[in-house]
Amino acid sequence: MQIRRIPKWVYWCAAALIALHIYFFQELIAAELLFGIVFGSFLVLLLAIYVVSEMGDRGLGWVEANRRGMVVMARRQWGRVEAISRRTFRRQHSESAQ
After folding, report:
1. What is the mean pLDDT of the chain?
2. Phi/psi of residue 7, each to 5°?
3. Which of 1, 25, 49, 81 has the fewest CB atoms inside 10 Å of its own CB, making it the most exposed?
C-alpha cells in the first residue's frame, strides 16, 4: 500500500479551519468588520457631501449661463410673494362660537 502525498492546499485549509476556532482570531475578524462598517459609512457620508457640493457648483454655473431668464422669473415670484403678504388673513368665525 502506497502512501499518497497530501496536497499543500489541504494543510492550508486545515490551518484556516483551526484558526477560525481560536477566540482571538474571531475577535480580530469581528473588529475588522466593525472598522469596515465605520469607514464605509464615513465614505458614504463624504460621497454624499461631494455630490451635493458638485450639484451646487453645476447649478450655479447653470444659473450664471441663464441669468436673464432667472432674473425675470425671480421678479415674477417676488411680485407674487408681495401680493400675498399684503392680504390680511382673517379667520371666519363659526355661528356656534357666538
Report:
1. 85
2. -65, 155
3. 1
